[in-house]
Amino acid sequence: MPETQDQTVSEAQVEQAIRLAVERYFDDCRARIPAFIDRHFHYPGAISTNRMALGWDMLRAPINLLWAPVYALACVLKWLVLQRISTGAFIGNNRGRNACRHGGTGRVCGCVRHDL
């Protein structure tokens, strides 16, 4: 399509059109907020939104509280074990020795050594 004098659009006009489109979009979004709040956070919407939480989650919460100390203890033990391994305190100090010299196990040992 050949360009004529009437079809030429300046950069300022393009920026103004984009700015107006963005303003209209966000004005539309802001206009939908009250209906969204009524639908999801007022009665009866809040009950339907939280229906799942009133079921199994109410039973899981006390169980999670009971498991929290066990999990914390496991994390502390893991940290202590990793500290002892990194200092070479377990099974002598084998960091310098290559126990896996044969076949394709060298790659596996390299990965294990890297993780430790």
Radius of gyration: 32 Å
Strand content: under 5%
Major sheet details = none
Structural class: mainly alpha
Task: Outline the low-pLDDT stretches.
Answer: none
Mean pLDDT: 78
Count of helical regions:
4
Number of strands: 0
Shape: flat
Distance between the termini: 67 Å
Estimate percent helicity: 55-70%
Notes on the structure:
By secondary structure, the chain is mainly alpha-helical. 67% of the residues lie in helices and 0% in strands. The longest helix has 31 residues, at 11-41.
How would you summarize this macromolecular structure in one to three sentences?
This protein has 116 residues and is an all-alpha fold. It is built from 4 helices and no strands.
SSE order and pairing:
Elements: H1 11-41, H2 45-49, H3 56-86, H4 105-115
List its traits.
flat; mainly alpha; 116 residues
